[in-house]
Amino acid sequence: IKIIKFGRISNRMNGSVEILQKIRFILLFFLIFPRLHAQEEEAEKVDTLPEYVKIYTKACVLVDSSRFNDALPLFKKVLKENPDYYLAHVKTAQVFIKQKKYKDAEKSLSKADVISPMNYEGMRLKGFMYMEQERFPEAKTALDSARAESEERKIDDPELFYYSAKLMFIGKDYKKSLQ
User: How many CB atoms lie within 10 A of CB 149?
Assistant: First the structure.
């Protein structure tokens, strides 16, 4: 039986036309779908994260593992690629503080302040650094600014509260240090 005769469908097969169209649709769907799925997988594999952010993340993991000497060159590489990345300046300062290189830490924090004035992380780290150096007036200014920012942004930072309480205790403000 010929289904198509001169471009028309014969009358005997009218009921089967819908079935044939559905079969054709299903076949096309299964032929095209795997290609679309493969294109989606390829699109998912494309990494859009900038390289300096990947390096920064690796360096942060090293800092968290107390491998400061390994992290420092990575932070410098990040800053070479993107000198306006203030978080890298802050983390670099953190590494310098852990290495007791306070002048280098202060330089990094001042660069971070120029890029992002009054940023919480920078103020907080400055306060910690000044406390370690026993520069209490500067520590008070930095820690008070960081506490005000933490209260505004509702950040619960136990380390900040510890250093603030320690500073109040040193300044003989015993009642406030216990709050």
Answer: 18
pLDDT, tens digit, for every residue of 67-77? 999 999 999 99
Rg (CA), the chain: 32
Q: Average of pLDDT values for 119-141?
A: 92
Prediction pTM value: 0.69
| Among candidate residues 124, 129, 97, the one with its CA nearest the CA of residue 113 | 124
- Cα-to-chain-centroid distance, residue 154: 19
Q: One-letter amino acid identity for 1?
A: I
pLDDT above 50 for 103 = yes
CB within 8 A of 56, min separation 6: which ones? 74, 75, 78, 85, 87, 88, 91
CA separation for the pair 62, 95 (Å, rounded): 10
Which residue bears the tokens 């820690």? Answer: 143
| Distance of alpha carbon 85 from alpha carbon 166, whole angstroms | 31
Cα 30 to Cα 36: distance, rounded to the nearest angstrom: 10
